[in-house]
TrEMBL record:
The keyword Transmembrane helix applies. Choline transporter. It is found in: Cell membrane; Membrane. Keywords: Membrane, Transmembrane, Transmembrane helix. It comes from Sesamum alatum. Pfam families: Choline_transpo. This is Choline transporter-like protein.
Length: 497
């Protein structure tokens, strides 16, 4: 569904409070000088809201059918007559695999809640731990796969470990600044204990959906069809689970972003101008008028962001191969165009201004490019570091489920372990997203009005301002350096000619 563009927010440090409009932003009635958002709280991206709800209905019905068909009785719903043409027919029951998935859900939830408990005191150490441990853990899983004679997965995890190691080496000089930003975001979240309660609440909602999903997935693994048919069904169910998990994560993202933005523009959660019940209003908007935009953005943002990280790393390592550089540059510009319309900073605009997703993403990216903050964001690796934490949690949950499956049903280790890993990653992701939301809100506020960050934490403001100045200098000098190198290469050829 195409929505008409929302009016762009206006920001002027010279507006007096009497001249500022008083829209209802997350339940607020007035804003301090310097921030004057124009808000239209209409239903946005309704088409994608309907698609998501229809998807939940269809998938939920299919999960119930698959799970019941093999629950305590083989072929309870007489589905086997439709699978007579498949090879490798084997019998099993849903309850053979459902408890294994519950182990993965329990481990993922325990890791997630541990993260929330240690968010204030040990967040920085936990993120460093995740960055350095993930490579080792991928290598260990690779060895385990070779040990149980799963050579394809052994090679896949070994390649993953190598790529992770190379990626960490390539960003090692950027990690100090990344940890500085994450530390500032964790400090902000620590002062907002209600947002961790929101994350816990949505983790419970996800666990309820996982109870149904794992019931259906257990029924699929027990179906009397060949492994090919099982894998296709599990892939479809996993894509559905990924979208559902991304939607819940981004609902938390919108709620936390709205809270952090309000705290920054009002100068603290105890300020007299702080609106009444901002958390409840943010929750209400994210689950009603803005829910369609969240469903829409959740389909694309994660994939495009990951692709952007990989292409940036590849682009920086290409030497003088003009043909390869041309191809990578084409992909880079294509992904940069997609990032303009699909980026995680859109969720802050959705939370505060109530726009649809595409306009929110476009406005956020244009704001960053016009202020130069985009160069700072490109240097920051906080999203990748938090993703590593979620991946590590998913790998731990998947390993626990795979070990139990290897004891009970060794022929289904990879099938159950890989899907259980996705469950654990989503549960941990629901907790790390609170820090990522704070990071995005800090960047949005810094781009719109740097004095907001200075008022919140002067030391942090000085550090990121210095880094922004360095990045802008580096960006301005880079074309000159490339031109000088090209001139130096062409001069000997001209002399020979």
């Amino acid at each position: 569904m195409t929505d008409s563009p929302s009016p762009s927010p206006s920001f002027s440090a010279y507006d007096s409070p009497a001249e500022l409009p008083h829209p209802n932003v997350l339940g607020s009635h007035s804003y301090p000088p310097g921030i004057s958002p124009t808000v239209s709280r209409h239903w946005r991206d309704v088409f994608w809201l309907l698609i998501f709800m229809a998807h939940l209905t269809v998938v939920g019905f299919a999960l119930g059918v698959f799970g019941l068909n093999r629950f305590k009785k083989k072929d309870r719903l007489n589905i086997d007559k439709y699978t007579m043409g498949f090879l490798e027919n084997k019998d099993g029951l849903t309850e053979d695999y459902w408890p294994v998935y519950s182990i993965a859900a329990g481990v993922g939830a325990a890791l997630g809640w541990t993260w929330l408990l240690l968010l204030g005191s040990r967040a920085n150490q936990m993120m460093k731990f995740a960055v350095h441990l993930l490579t080792t853990y991928l290598a260990v899983v690779s060895v385990l796969c070779f040990w149980i004679k799963q050579f394809f997965w052994g090679v896949a995890f070994a390649i993953g470990a190598a790529l992770q190691f190379l990626y960490v080496i390539s960003i090692i000089d950027r990690l100090p600044f990344t940890m500085l930003v994450l530390q500032g975001a964790a400090k902000m979240v620590q002062n907002l204990p209600e947002v961790t309660r929101v994350a816990s609440m949505f983790m419970l909602v996800m666990l309820l959906w996982l109870a149904l999903w794992s019931f259906g997935a257990g029924g699929v693994v027990a179906l009397s069809i060949g492994d090919g048919g099982r894998w296709w069904l599990l892939v479809v169910l996993s894509i559905s689970l990924f979208w559902t998990g991304a939607v819940l994560c981004n609902v938390v993202h919108v709620i936390v972003s709205g809270m952090v933005f309000l705290v920054l523009i009002h100068g603290g959660r105890e300020a007299a101008s702080m609106p009444h019940k901002p958390l409840m209003n943010s929750l209400r908007y994210s689950m009603t008028t803005s829910f369609g935009s969240i469903c829409y953005g959740s389909l694309f943002t994660a994939a495009i962001r990951t692709l952007r990280w990989k292409i940036r790393g590849l682009r920086s390592k290409i030497g003088k191969n003009e043909c390869l550089l041309c191809c990578v540059d084409f992909l880079f510009h294509l992904v940069e165009f997609l990032v303009r319309w699909f980026n995680k900073y859109a969720y802050v605009q959705i939370a505060v201004y109530g726009k649809n997703f595409n306009h929110s993403a476009k406005d956020a990216w244009e704001l960053f490019q016009s202020t130069g903050v985009e160069s700072l964001i490109a240097y920051d690796c906080s999203g990748a570091v938090l993703l590593m934490g979620a991946l590590l949690g998913g790998l731990i949950a998947g390993t626990c489920a795979a070990i139990w499956t290897w004891i009970k049903h060794p022929e289904r280790v990879v099938m159950v372990g890989s899907t259980a890993m996705l469950m654990g990653m989503i549960l941990v992701g629901l907790t790390v997203v609170v820090v990522e939301s704070a990071v995005t809100s800090i960047y949005i506020c810094y781009a719109e009005d740097p004095s907001l960050i200075n008022r919140w934490d002067a030391v942090f403001f000085t550090q990121i301002s210095e880094k922004l100045h360095q990045r802008l200098q580096h960006r301005s000098l880079r074309p000159r350096e490339l031109l000088r190198r090209r001139t130096d290469e062409e001069t000997p050829e001209a002399v020979l000619t």
